[in-house]
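#random but structural
TW: two for the price of one
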Amino acid sequence: MIRRDYILRQIEQFAAMLAQIAGFAKNEKWSEASTVAGGEFQRLAGVEAPELVRLSETNLLARLIEHEPNVAVESKVFMLATLLKTQGDLLVGQNRVEESRAYYLKGLHLLFETFGRVEITERPDFLPTVEIFLAALRDEPLPLTTNALLMHHYERTGEFAKAEDALFEILDSEPSQIELLEFGRSFYQRLLSLNDTALTSGNLPRAEVLSALAELDARKARLNQD
């Protein structure tokens, strides 16, 4: 109970901090907003924002996991992912759109890493969804790595049509890579092992899976002929 009370207090304080940043941003007090955000980056991860986005997700999680129980780590990760989205928004507000992408991508990747490693117990209201991050990144194509993480996320959550969309973003970005076609074939083979109800629920019926698999086989045959 003491640990849960502690986490709830941390979440309340974090929410108040977000409200403070939002107030500064509304009045275009970018320096004040950035100062508050910078202090929170230091508190959560022990580094400043520019250094944080250069860390791998594994190294970043290692910093957060140290000396913390799983429930506390989950909350801390959610706070940091939210803070990364907030920092990206602050940069957009200052017309520093290119810089903002690094923060949006890092926050999104951090969510994917967390969703893939632990069973999520509770999502705080302040946490941006995957779709909110994607909306912030919509002006340019996603990196291949991000699309691969996105694909696995949607497959894991049973949103197979969305997973397929991410897959074809990958394939169309590197159309001559046979290895990526094999990567795609593995995805469809996994889907074929599921029942029809699961596939229909994921908006990718079995007939569409078989059709897409045949398309990848045709692409592979054309590449082998070249």
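TW: number two ↓
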Amino acid sequence: MSGTPPFAILELSADTLERRIDSLAELLRDCVLDGASIGFVLPIPASTSETFWRDRVLPGVRARTRLLLVAETAGSVIGTVQLGLDTPPNQPHRADVAKLLVHPTRRRRGIARALMVELESRAASLGRRLLTLDTRTGDPSVRLYTAFGYRTVGVIPGYCLDPTSERFDSTTIMYKTL
């Protein structure tokens, strides 16, 4: 074995994203079904996750205000992360990290780390020195981002509805200077 990971990290163009909406929607649904708090609640029909990629992500990728990276293996999307570049004129140095997703059966294999390393590299090459994100308080993602060097700014209580129940969860706001 040559030491290369069993997956590749790729940037999706708008055209490729359009062709891969079904597999991206399936990944998103699988993550929500596994309890991921990424803006959706159960039940989540396929049409809802397809609409997210088509109406919320695709326009930004097309306009080059959103970078979409995917991890794939054997033609299957197993992870994604997005970099939001549509910041106000007084924040050209900043970008937002969003929707770090790894398929539940593929976690703990270095996929999230590889996606974030590539995302941070791309951000730096675009002159973005400050990355911000939010994640559900208490999730393993908080430890993951902390391990990547992100620092907690604070916690907003009752920020979002839990995807699987009627309770409201807090969100942790984090940042990293590149």
